[in-house]
Amino acid sequence: MSEYAVAVDFGKTRLRVALMDGQGRTHHVREVDSRDFTSTGDITEAIVEGAYDLLRSARQERVTGIGVGSTGAVDPATGTVSSSGSLPYLRGYDMAAQLSGRLGLPVTVVNDVSAQALGEAVYGGHGEADRVAFVNFGTGVGVALVRGRRLDFGAHGSLGLVSALPLPPDGRTLNERAGGKALAPFVGENGADGPECDAARAGAVEAAALVIGFVAGLCDPHTIAVGGGVWLRNPWFRDRVRARLHEVLGGQTTGLAVPHVVTARLGDRAGLAGAGHLGLSAGRTAAESRPPAAM
Question: Prior bond to 169 cis, omega within 30?
Answer without folding.
Answer: yes
